[in-house]
From TrEMBL:
UniProt KW Protein biosynthesis keyword: no
Catalytic activity as recorded in UniProt: 5-amino-1-(5-phospho-beta-D-ribosyl)imidazole + hydrogencarbonate + ATP = 5-carboxyamino-1-(5-phospho-D-ribosyl)imidazole + ADP + phosphate + 2 H(+)
EC number(s) per entry: 6.3.4.18
Family: Belongs to the PurK/PurT family.
Keywords assigned by UniProt, alphabetized: ATP-binding, Ligase, Nucleotide-binding, Purine biosynthesis
Major enzyme class: ligase
Name of the featured protein: N5-carboxyaminoimidazole ribonucleotide synthase
GO biological process: 'de novo' IMP biosynthetic process
Claim: Ligase is one of the keywords in the record: yes
Entries under Pfam families matching the protein: ATP-grasp, PurK_C, RS_preATP-grasp-like
Pathway(s) where this gene product acts: Purine metabolism; IMP biosynthesis via de novo pathway; 5-amino-1-(5-phospho-D-ribosyl)imidazole-4-carboxylate from 5-amino-1-(5-phospho-D-ribosyl)imidazole (N5-CAIR route): step 1/2
Originating organism: Pyrobaculum aerophilum
Assembly mode: Homodimer.
Length: 379
């Protein structure tokens, strides 16, 4: 069996790690010759020819060469379907998709440009203005009225969302097999700072309606593989879909500690192999390592409380995901306590410089992941 993955970042690397026992020829295409996945995967000489050779083609993030994905789709090899990848090319289209299938989301409007965006935001009183394309990990998001000046410098169509007060953020990750069977991983509760995931904990509970919304998304174009859906629970009790990730996802890295990780199940699903419902699930916390180079990481101390997964990226920069730590224990309270210790060991006093957007870039955008208030719990 031949699997070709578009994108060679840490998600492809972990897919490759988790497919080692399966008889699969695992290849990756990434224009960056130092991409993490090349430590594990084969690099094809010609990506177009590799599409022809592969039994299945998948992608590890949304900003991949669309022409390769389109070719794979025409050959009936792309999983999940191209429609989901195209959906992630625009936040506006993603919001319209939610509306079309009856999945509630943050109240939103489309603006032709910054002037209209400011008028809409003013009518909402508090709002978040987002650049529709290319944004992830909190990039391209601006809070109104605090950042009205930055909004006035934006170009093109914009997404304007009502600012909502968030009680918590959680995600549900599912795997759908080629035969339509769907398995859910237990929900994880996620803690973001300025739009980037810092840590999360699982398993937690989610209302049944959230599972129904995930089913609608999966069924729309007959999804195959792992899909993540991030939700808000608002202070007034509403469950709102924030975004989907049609791929393996950071909020499910904790599943590496189960008997059927998201990475293994994604590989098996896209290759048409049977997927497994995870059974061995212990309370687990995942802590992202952001911007810390390996020489400054307290490896021994972190290994005493958990397991380090290192991505082997060439350069450490603030807010760049360099690795993560998974921590298991007998209870959620125990692993949450250990996660706070891991945060202190990883960042110490450097947390603002390495994680906060105001330190990572000049003229920062201090929006949260979708306008609500969410912060890392450190004590």
């Amino acid at each position: 069996m031949r699997l070709f993955v578009l994108g060679g970042g840490q998600l492809a690397l972990m897919m490759c790690w988790e497919s080692q026992r399966i008889p699969v020829d695992f290849s990756v295409y990434d224009p960056d010759s130092s991409a993490p996945a090349y430590r594990c995967a084969r690099r094809p000489a010609d990506p177009l020819e590799e599409v022809e050779r592969a039994d299945a083609v998948t992608f590890e993030f949304e900003n991949v060469d669309i022409s390769l994905a389109e070719r794979a789709e025409r050959l009936g090899k792309l999983r999940p379907p191209l429609a989901y990848l195209r959906l992630k090319k625009s936040r506006l289209e993603e919001r319209a998709f939610f509306d079309s299938i009856g999945v509630p989301t943050v109240p939103w409007r489309r603006a032709a440009g910054w002037e209209e965006a400011l008028k809409i935001a003013e009518s909402m009183r508090r709002a978040v203005v987002k650049v529709p394309t290319g944004g992830y990990d909190g990039k391209g998001q601006y809070v109104y009225p605090r950042e009205a000046g930055a909004i006035s410098r934006l170009e093109g169509e914009l997404l304007v969302e009502e600012y909502v007060d968030i009680k918590r953020e959680f995600s549900i990750v599912a795997v759908r097999a080629e035969n339509g069977n769907v398995y859910f991983y237990p929900p994880a509760q996620n803690y973001y700072v300025h739009g980037i995931l810092v840590w999360n904990i699982a398993p937690v509970k989610a209302p049944e309606e959230a599972y129904e919304y995930v089913h609608r998304i999966l069924d729309r174009w007959k999804y195959v593989g792992v899909l993540a859906v991030e939700f808000f629970e608002t202070s007034d009790g509403r469950i709102l879909a924030n975004e989907i990730a049609p791929r393996v996802h950071n909020t499910a890295h904790w599943t590496l500690e189960t008997d059927a990780s998201q990475f293994e199940n994604h590989v098996k699903a896209v290759l048409g192999l049977p997927v497994r419902e995870p059974k061995a699930i212990a309370p687990t916390a995942m802590v992202n390592i952001l911007g810390v180079p390996i020489e400054k990481l307290p490896v021994a101390e972190l290994e005493r409380i958990g397991k380090i997964y290192w991505y082997y990226k060439k350069e450490a920069r603030p807010r760049r995901k360099m690795g993560h730590v998974n921590i298991t224990g007998g209870s959620l309270a125990e692993v949450a306590s250990k996660a706070r210790l891991a945060l202190q060991l990883i960042y110490g006093r450097d947390f603002p410089r390495l994680v906060l957007r105001s330190y990572a870039a000049s003229g920062s955008e201090l929006a949260s992941s979708a306008g609500g208030r969410q912060a890392v719990v450190t004590g």
